[in-house]
């Protein structure tokens, strides 16, 4: 793993570009940085997969990632505490104990972003 500096994530506000990870899923500058520097494209793939299952009835999904030791839990909710899905990750070396991501439906794509980019 690279020398990942999580404090850099707070510097991302808005985005200058979108990065396609699938036909209907885009990353922002911040989530692309996170995926590359923390080597967690697996997380973005997991988010995209669950967003496809959740659908677009809710245009906003909050994703909470919690790491305990080498295991992680990803919880997908509506932002008001209603859980859409939950995924247990049996092994990860993700370097942050807790990370929140937002996903917004823009009418054509799910945009996965850091909270500071919302």
Structure, described:
This protein is of the alpha+beta class and 118 residues long. The chain has a single domain, classed as Roll (Nuclear Transport Factor 2, Chain: A). The chain is built from 2 helices and 7 strands. It has a 7-stranded mixed beta sheet with strand order 1-2-7-6-3-4-5. A hairpin with a 2-residue loop joins strand 3 (60-68) and strand 4 (71-77). Helix 1 (29-37) packs across helix 2 (41-54). The longest helix is centred in the middle third of the chain and has 14 residues, at 41-54. The radius of gyration is 13 Å and the shape is globular. The chain starts with 18 loop residues before the first strand and ends in a 5-residue tail after the last strand. The mean pLDDT is 94.
Please render the helix and strand layout as text:
Elements: E1 19-22, E2 25-27, H1 29-37, H2 41-54, E3 60-68, E4 71-77, E5 83-89, E6 98-105, E7 110-113
Give short descriptive properties of this protein.
7 strands; seven-stranded mixed sheet; Nuclear Transport Factor 2, Chain: A; alpha+beta; 118 residues; 36% strand
Q: Mind telling me the C-alpha Rg?
A: 13 Å
Return the domain count.
Answer: 1
Helix content: 10-25%
Separation of the first and last Cα atoms: 28 Å
Mean pLDDT: 94
CATH architecture: Roll
- Going by CATH, the homologous superfamily would be enterococcus faecalis protein
CATH topology: Nuclear Transport Factor 2, Chain: A
If strands are numbered along the chain, what order do they take across the biggest sheet? 1-2-7-6-3-4-5
Beta fraction: 35-45%
Largest sheet: 7 strands, mixed
Shape: globular
Number of helices: 2
């Amino acid at each position: 793993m690279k020398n990942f500096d999580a404090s850099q994530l707070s510097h991302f506000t808005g985005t200058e570009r979108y990065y396609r990870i699938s036909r209907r899923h885009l990353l922002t500058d911040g989530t692309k940085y996170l995926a590359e520097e923390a080597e967690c494209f697996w997380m973005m793939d997991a988010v995209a997969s669950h967003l496809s299952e959740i659908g677009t009835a809710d245009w906003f999904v909050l994703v909470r990632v919690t790491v305990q030791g080498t295991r992680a839990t990803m919880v997908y909710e509506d932002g008001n505490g209603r859980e859409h899905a939950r995924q247990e990750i049996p092994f990860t070396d993700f370097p942050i104990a807790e990370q929140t991501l937002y996903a917004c439906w823009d009418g054509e794509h799910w945009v996965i972003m850091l909270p500071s980019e919302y």
